[in-house]
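Technical note accompanying the year-one report. For the benefit of new consortium partners, we illustrate the data format agreed upon in the data management plan: each record pairs a sequence with a structure-token string. No post-processing was applied to the example shown here.
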Amino acid sequence: MKAGKISSLLLVLLITALATVVRVFLMDAQSDLDASVVSQAVGFASVVAGASFIVLAPVGIAIDRAIANLRRGIEGASDANTPVFSPGMRLMRPVARAFTATVDVFRQREQSLRSQLSDLEIRHRVSEAERRQIEAVLHALRDAVIVTDAFNEIVMANQAAANILGFDRKTSIHKPIDEVISDTTLCTLIRDARDTANFTDTRHVEHTVSDPKAKPGRAQAGQGAAGTVYDVTLACVENHKREVAGVVTILHDLTRERELSQMKSDFVSKASHELRTPLSSIRAYVEMLVDGEATDEGARHEFYRIMQNETERLSRLIDNMLNISRIEAGIVQIDRENVDIKALVARAAHTIEPQAREKRITLHQRMADVDLTVEGDADMLYQVVLNLMSNSVKYTPEGGRVTVAADSDNLTRSVLVSVSDTGLGIPPDALPRLFDKFFRVENYKRVAKGTGLGLSLCKHIVETVHHGQIGVDSKLGMGSKFWFSVPMTYAGARAAA
């Protein structure tokens, strides 16, 4: 059996030691020693070396094996199911027990650290998922949201905030607010909210933010000259030590709310004015009848006729207001059917004929020789055509002409109806507001009476109810052309199909 590394090393050391002894012995011996003595010394050294080899070789081999087993045990110590030392090892057993105990301690620590690392990874994944959910919620909000930390650095911001304040959302994270937000007042509000560290009360401040993309001196619709007004909400966030961890800032645009409030106020004011006019007229004639100022039958008949006209005007005003409100609220009842636009125009022209005859206005109809059937509410579409024709007759001087035309558009699968007149025309500054509630051209109020709701009702019927389009082309003094188009097939039915 071949000796191991340790046994070989022991043999070399032994031979070296014996050689050194013999050499010293020969150097110190007398010169008169004979050859037999030298031969005996060499033989004795050989015998001692051989005996030592026989004795030390197994010991060296065992030590070598023990060290090899120890090395393999150390290399396999990372596996908790692998024993560090073999049972057959005896010489290194005390060392083995001590080393095994040490390895077990390190194994336990390793398992604990691995468990902690696994928990941290799970918590990190959960935190990342929650962060992504929060970011998704923030990006879905219309209001601008900015979250800053205790050092006034931006931690999170949605795209609405980036658009309003004019910064790049991706490159602004973990940067101070003073470097990202150019609005110094807003930065001061955020810093003050962090310094006060008030966790119970939410602070609300009305602040005007200028549009970073707006050109100087040009205000956008619904905005003041200085910018857009926002309700700024600031709330402090605390950590586990009840210290300020950051500030959440929310910017809510007040433009739409103020517009709605102004619209409601204008609606009430204009509706009250329009209702007061016919009621005042009716009341005045009733008082005259009661006081006996109508002395003959002709005067009384005239009073009754005026009262009837004012009552009808009041009834139309209330009906239009209710119809518009129902359409805007989405609760209007719609009876959809196949409506022949040719027959509908002929019916409206027959109704308007007496009114046109009084002013010697000629009515013309130009109907295309194609199918002009649409899917919609016949009564509502009739009201649109009748209203447009009535307005044309009202604002066209005597001897003028009103033309109603209808044709189909195969490209958009719709029917286009237009009402043209040779009337007064519409001023350019009045065209954008022509379909607003209660709007009437100031200079034309003396020409004809009206409530200012007819065109608004037409717009709601065409666009909201029938998903069509309505518009007007006009030049002052050269007449007007009102038009509307309605799909041949109801858009909701196509979408559902």
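Partners are asked to follow this layout when depositing records. DSSP finds twelve helices and twelve strands in the chain.
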